[in-house]
């Protein structure tokens, strides 16, 4: 049994949380298959390694990482779907992998590529099933259901077979089903995967409002950085099962989003000559990006000075100027490279 100390400041806390999977090497050919029956070589894969996190109540936390980084495995350990190999984990004062009824009634998990709804029945039937499972009172059930149905705008879809709903409509129903019992913690694994931009926006808006109203703690994994930017108070980056960065989103922005790019389209193809002139003007991060285009990298603080200088000294050389912010993709790539 893993022994843990309760820390009331955090609703979720783990210390050196690790998960190791065992698998067996498969030999080639018929001889190899026969050999495997008697002597199998055991191999190990470290999915999560020494992950320590602390999450206060009401936070929306983005768990970011490449495919295979350990995000979903982490969520499964926090929800109790799988037990850790070692380390300590506590959610709402419970050991998740003990799967106590009192704990399970306080959490919910939605996975973008898996459904909890009955495929051949209308979503409303699954909602009533969840009402029974979570022992929700009639008045509370109707109030919660009506509130979320109105927020999601799915009144007309309640009595339609789930398999006949669009992907976006199904995801909205998944969220309603998961939140009927008003869980204290909601785990979301790729909730906007495959959805159109309008549905993504509506789901993010719903989650933001729901979190604001009820103070539900939300742990979110997503490859859609718009989800992270729009929703998260803080982020955790993991790579090969290890935490490589953790901070509030405000500090994350200050640290990595202070960069701007000036894209200059020139009248002359003599780009090298312009680059030398720019270097004389103390522009050092300059690169040629096309036959007659240049990119200048700078900080937000210096951007107005650069724009003024370009207008005064290089106006005759320019066809166009575009100013771009550093993208989330660039930031994440930079962190992983470091």
UniProtKB/TrEMBL annotation:
Domain ABC transporter: 32-265
Organism of origin: Fusobacterium nucleatum subsp. polymorphum (Fusobacterium polymorphum)
Gene Ontology molecular-function annotations: ATP binding; ATP hydrolysis activity
Keywords in alphabetical order: ATP-binding, Nucleotide-binding, Transport
Entry protein name: Multidrug ABC transporter ATP-binding protein
Record-linked InterPro entries: AAA+_ATPase (IPR003593), ABC_transporter-like_ATP-bd (IPR003439), ABC_transporter-like_CS (IPR017871), ABC_transporter_ATP-binding (IPR050763), P-loop_NTPase (IPR027417)
Keyword Transferase: no
Pfam family, one: ABC_tran
Signal peptide: none
